[in-house]
Amino acid sequence: MEFGFGEQDEVFRGEARAWLEAHIGRFAGVVGRGGPGSEHEGGAERRAWESELGSGGWIGIGWPEGGYGNRVATLTQQVVWAEEYARVRAPGRYGHIGENLLAPTLLAHGSEEQRRRFLPPIARGEELWCQGYSEPGAGSDLASLRTSAARDGDGRWRVSGQKVWTSLAHEADWCFVLARTEPGSRRHHGLSFLLVPMDQPECVDVRPIRQLTGTSEFNEVFFDGAVAESVVGGEGSGWRVAMGLLGFERGVSTLAQQIGFQEELRGVVRDAVASGAVRDPVIADRIVRLWAELRTMRWNALRTLGGAENAGAPSVAKLLWGGWHQRLGELALRVRGAAAAVGAGDWTADAPYELDEQQRLFLFSRADTIYGGSDEIQRTIIAERVLGLPREAL
Ligand SMILES: Cc1cc2nc3c(=O)[nH]c(=O)nc-3n(C[C@H](O)[C@H](O)[C@H](O)COP(=O)(O)OP(=O)(O)OC[C@H]3O[C@@H](n4cnc5c(N)ncnc54)[C@H](O)[C@@H]3O)c2cc1C
Q1: Element (H or E) spanning 280, and its range?
Q2: Residue 367, ligand 1, Cβ within 6 A
Q3: Nearest CA among 188, 16, 195 for reference residue 122
Q4: Average pLDDT along the chain
Q5: Which among 49, 1, 39, 50 is positioned nearest to 309, based on CA atoms?
Q6: Dihedral (Cα; 253, 258, 261, 265), 10-degree rounding
């Protein structure tokens, strides 16, 4: 497909760049923060940045026109925005889950009333969301989840059960929860997609999980009779809605992610040149391979966004970027040599070690082949849905 930037895109770029340059200065403390291994950093300031983006009309630019408070941008303009955003190293987005996962789900499966209620506060950067799918014992095999919901005497849904690995639950105002609403139902039947306010201190308990990076970006979440305010797609349709949402995990945000990757690769190259490590032919070879693979991923993503028909495309993309990012993390440390193994700072119970950007990249990227569907699961999808191999016995 032809994918170039036209005159209108360049006008849009000028507007995006001017806005970012005029506004990012007040958020200097979180510039370049919120990426791999620092997702937990900058709490109040990053929340304020979300509101700033919202007041500039920069949230939800990929949504259609519907009076939800978002500006509407073409596909190429969305790419332009992602490029400009990465160029000024604006903070990692706290609002990503609401903007890029929940919103498209409501647009596809929600009622107009739900869209009117939930999309405008996401567009204003006011309400943050988290994703309540995984449970102890239900990760790759999500259909074995045990969290349930039942109606109380007033007809309201009450959710009980435990979710785990819930990114940003400690910041979120809302959680979309996949729960069993039909007692006795099995696997993917009898599930519903519920919208649950997190501010229910008696019934929602968020407990941080310490990660390999020493920080806590994700959590365990315990629901004990928490009220759900809405069911998306109708009672019992949760599996269809939940799977539809996973399809939105990629899209233009893949391109934005790749722009972030490009910046990280540049950082590794800078390190390698500064230290002279680039004269090691193995390191030089790896840099060039990573660069070429990143170009391939970009064309692949553009082709998919351009509507190229391919049932396995999201799985192929996930396999490519997960492995790529891990190899980048490994190279980042190899460039440093033995010194990369040493953490800075004093050892305390709260912060056992201080990590720099490259060390965080290496440690965090171990997770890239797990979340959003592990590599093994992506290969199973390709085997079954693309190659037509026999289905896995469950
Ligand atoms: C950084 C991070 C953020 C996350 N954020 C969220 C979030 O916000 N919300 C949320 O709901 N979840 C989140 N998750 C959870 C994530 O979706 C799960 O970790 C993932 O689905 C894998 O599930 P699991 O951890 O239970 O591992 P398991 O499913 O127990 O898998 C363990 C291993 O067995 C392999 N395996 C499992 N089944 C098969 C099979 N059938 N065939 C071959 N191999 C198999 C897996 O590939 C993996 O290597 C996050 C995870 C991470 C790492």
Answers
A1: none
A2: yes
A3: 195
A4: 91
A5: 1
A6: -170
Does the structure show a pLDDT above 60 at 1?
Answer: no
Which tokens go with 130?
């988290």
- Mean pLDDT for 127-144 is 96
Compare 344 and 291 and report the one with higher pLDDT: 291
What does the alpha-carbon distance between residue 258 and residue 252 come to, in Å, rounded to a whole number? 10
* Minimal-distance CA residue to ligand 1 atom 31: 140
Give the Cα separation of 63 and 75 in Å (integer).
10
Active site residue 41: no
pLDDT digits (tens, 9 = 90+) for 253-297: 677 788 889 989 999 999 999 999 999 999 999 999 999 999 999
Residue carrying the six token digits 């396999």:
319
Q: What is the pLDDT of residue 252?
A: 63
Copy the structure tokens of residue 120: 């405008």
Catalytic residue among 84, 99, 171, 249, which?
249
Ramachandran class of 127: left when φ > 0, alpha when ψ lies in -120 to 50, beta otherwise:
beta
Cα(161)–Cα(187) distance, rounded to whole angstroms?
A: 16
For residue 371 and ligand 1, the question of a CB distance below 6 A is answered with yes
Q: How many Å is the maximal CA-CA distance in the chain? A: 72
Ligand 1 mean position to 59 CA, how many Å?
29
Distance from Cα 219 to the centre of ligand 1, integer Å: 14
Tell me the whole-structure pTM to 2 decimals: 0.93
Using the Cα atoms of residue 18, residue 21, residue 27 and residue 33 in order, give the sign of their dihedral: positive
